[in-house]
Amino acid sequence: MQKKKKKPRTASLTYEKKYLELGYTRIIGLDEAGRGAWAGPVFAGAVALPHNTDDLMDRLAGVRDSKEMTPKQREILSETIQQVAVVWGVGSASSQEIDELGIISATKLAMRRA
Hints:
Number of helices: 5
Number of domains: 1
CATH class: Alpha Beta
Strand order of the largest sheet: 1-2-3
Largest sheet: 3 strands, antiparallel
Structural class: alpha+beta
Mean pLDDT: 86
Low-confidence stretches: none
Distance between the termini: 44 Å
Order of helices and strands: HEEHHEHH
Number of strands: 3
Shape: globular
Radius of gyration: 16 Å
């Protein structure tokens, strides 16, 4: 029987490193929450991190998909992210917008607002 491969405790930043090598200077990370809810808004968060900080990976140890984290982990890392981020934002789309646009378009709207 094959062992399950463990997920890394922190994001690898493989894609971010690739685009920095191509000359991009700002890379925005996005995550959404609320798409599985029966009613209510959908939220999205966006963050741009500095790419020339030596201790960035140490400071962000444990950051990964928010759905894989406990509420306490999200709270602690949220504070850290806000401290180190170049810029960050949160956007939402209301339940009425979800009804009018559909969940995918409403999620994209929340991401643009973030």
